[in-house]
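sry for the spam today, last one i promise. struct tokens for design, 417 residues
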């Protein structure tokens, strides 16, 4: 046991917080790790640039160039993080045989068997994402909302293929698969028709969801966005569009990416708003700096506040959590680790907050004392609880994990040219 833990436990207990329970609880909460942090969202099925309004900036050496390297890098990241993990894949990470060529509308479960084997060996479930970007069949920046019926057909078929693959993931791993639909569809400049693309988008998603699936196993989501690079004036899948779609389509969840809103909007406030209406919601946890920049998640105020809302609302069984950040300017394995550990810290801090006491102060109108207590909670010895959690999970609590990353960089990453 961490020498300072008993004292920290006692201090928290005085506020009615059982840190042992918090630690045990956190070990059971799955958080999805996005595979695309390892290769700057390149995927394995094309060599072109990243399109669809997203961008990975930086050119740090050592990017994974194939599935073997990506899995090896992810293994190191996983080993350095406490807590329960889930794997988050994009369809562009299908693993084809040597010389095999399969377009995205023809993908089958067998193209993901190696990922299933990988996940099962590590006792992870799998989340999935059809890939509606970085592909030649994006016409004038549009996929599911294109006026071209052939283009829409291709992408609808891709979505349907992904439903079948998601069902396969759930059946193989025994864990429900969250399947997120996001497209970068939109316009750089002022459109002449805003509703037309949205009506086509609506019909296309409905067609994708007409593919049979077990809603207990496959959780389709729709993710909104405010704008993208080169898609500044209009986004087909806006916040209002996706939220309304999810609200009116059973078995479809809203997914909120906290980089996909106006900079002064906060997802921490949207979580409880949506939980008033949706039995289940999904999150992409990221950090946007002035735009949807997908910076590495940190243990910062809004990250903490998002975790607090999930715990406060007693919604751990209702909120599917996935990281969605990617930074090509720093060591990519370290980026994975910092992001995952930051969200773990946020969850643990939330689990160690005396929510009932604070809620009572609010309900009794003791708002001055509420402010005092909220500030006081920031000074509790959280670090000692974190250390104990990491100790129990068999990972380093302090920055010493970084030594392993640096060793790996020397031994492996820098040898990739
Ligand atoms: Mn996202």
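last one done:
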């Amino acid at each position: 046991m961490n020498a300072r833990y008993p004292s920290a436990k006692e201090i928290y207990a005085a506020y009615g917080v059982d840190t042992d329970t918090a630690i045990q609880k956190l070990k059971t909460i799955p958080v999805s790790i996005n595979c695309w942090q390892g290769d700057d969202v390149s995927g394995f099925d094309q060599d072109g640039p990243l399109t669809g309004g997203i961008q990975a900036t930086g050119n740090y050496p050592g990017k994974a160039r194939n599935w073997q390297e990506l899995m090896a890098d992810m293994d190191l990241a996983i080993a350095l993080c406490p807590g329960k993990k889930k794997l988050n894949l994009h369809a562009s990470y299908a693993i084809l045989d040597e010389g095999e060529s399969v377009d995205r509308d023809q993908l089958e479960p067998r193209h993901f068997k190696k990922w299933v084997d990988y996940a099962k060996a590590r006792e992870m479930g799998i989340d999935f994402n059809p890939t509606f970007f970085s592909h030649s069949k994006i016409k004038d920046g549009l996929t599911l909302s294109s006026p071209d019926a052939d283009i829409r057909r291709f992408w609808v078929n891709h979505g349907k293929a992904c439903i079948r693959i998601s069902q396969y993931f759930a059946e193989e791993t025994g864990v429900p698969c969250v399947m997120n639909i996001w497209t970068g569809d939109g316009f750089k400049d002022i459109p002449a028709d805003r509703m037309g693309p949205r009506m086509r988008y609506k019909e296309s998603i409905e067609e994708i969801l007409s593919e049979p699936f077990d809603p207990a196993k496959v959780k389709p989501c729709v993710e909104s966005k405010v704008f993208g690079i080169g898609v500044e004036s209009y986004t087909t899948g806006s916040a209002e569009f996706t939220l309304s779609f999810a609200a009116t389509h059973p078995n479809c969840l809203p997914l909120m990416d906290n980089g996909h809103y106006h900079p002064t909007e906060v997802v921490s406030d949207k979580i409880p708003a949506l939980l008033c209406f949706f039995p289940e919601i999904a999150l992409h946890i990221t950090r946007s700096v002035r735009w949807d920049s997908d910076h590495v998640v940190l243990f910062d105020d809004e990250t903490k506040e998002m975790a607090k809302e999930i715990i406060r609302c007693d919604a751990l069984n209702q909120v599917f959590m996935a990281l969605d950040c990617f930074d090509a300017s720093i060591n990519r394995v370290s980026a994975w680790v910092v992001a995952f550990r930051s969200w773990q810290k946020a969850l643990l801090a939330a689990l160690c907050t005396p929510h009932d006491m604070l809620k009572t102060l609010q309900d009794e109108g003791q708002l001055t004392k509420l402010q005092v207590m909220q500030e006081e909670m920031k000074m509790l010895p959280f670090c000692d609880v974190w250390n104990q959690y990491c100790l129990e999970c068999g990972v380093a609590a302090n920055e010493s994990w970084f030594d392993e990353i640096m060793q790996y960089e020397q031994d492996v990453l820098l040898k990739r040219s």
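The pocket of manganese (II) ion is lined by residues 223, 257, 284, 324 (CB under 6 Å). ok im logging off now
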